[in-house]
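Fold it.
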Amino acid sequence: MNVFVSEYLCSGACELSQEDASLLTEGTAMLDAVVTDLLSIPDCTVTVCIRESLSFVSDVFLQAEHLQRLQILRVTNSEEEQALFDRACQTADVAWIIAPEFDGLLVSRTERALQLGARVVGPDLKSIQLTADKWKLFEFLSERDLPTIPTVLMQDELTALEASFPCLIKHRFGAGGLGWELLSKAENWLKRRPDFGDQSSDYIVQPFLSGSSLSTVVLADVGRRELFPPGEQRVSWESGFAYQGGVIPAKLELDVVDSIHKLISRVCEQLPGLVGYVGFDILLPDADPMKPLIVEVNPRLTTSYVGYRQLTLDNLAERIVNGSSCYSALKWELEREIEFQPDGSLFLNQSRSLEEKKQ
């Protein structure tokens, strides 16, 4: 089996701005983890496109390249990446597309791979298009009485009256928290409103709710879903939104975990096209932690993969490319605590679980 792994920011498909630096770091960590796991599958070969300026030469990869199990296609410009992307999709058995939602990138690259005849792992196009648009996702969830954060579309001055303050402004198609802005009162919003101009309908406004930020994952296949242990998201608002990694598993009561899993299962039942590795961002409101809210649905690989792969002896990548239905249930080492940074670096702490066992 040959797997083509395309991580957009690492691939050389675009010029990188200063704002892309954090996303590139996350993308590199995910790509490294995915390729490593794929190479541990017997008889699996991997193809990747890598921008020429990016270092991607671990000992594992050098050895795999020498054994012709890893083909690294060095890319100098976006036109070259497009040609190599097309060729790889046509020759690979499986295409694994990792891309942010903004500018329709995840949709367009997935659609292109499908047009070229590739078997693409992950949600179907309809599900990607819906979940990548935060406004459309809000409408979908609300129509089905699935609890989520109240949301209004930024269209005119009435938005300030409809919104609660403090509030968050988010791009409808944003990723990684880019473009999030926290405003404390309506006057701040009215001052900022003219800056958005004709693009105001590309943004949503949500109340800033106090609570615990969590994330989890569903590994879905036909007729089967595996729900991962929820993890804690670490976020700083000191100088705007800053994602600071997380801890897996989060310290939660069993009934809270159960309420999160029940909510996510309801979403998946309403949207059966959510196949493969799907990330969910969850808020546990301080006002009622037993009533979790859906914040976002990420129809792609998320940074949490680097943590979850350390919390199990099973190969997550193998289940993603082959489909999880032919495997036994994942076995989690919940006595471990995995702390991961946005750059993919990890810290393993077992002291908490050992102390708990002594009690």
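The CA atoms of residues 169 and 205 lie 5 Å apart.
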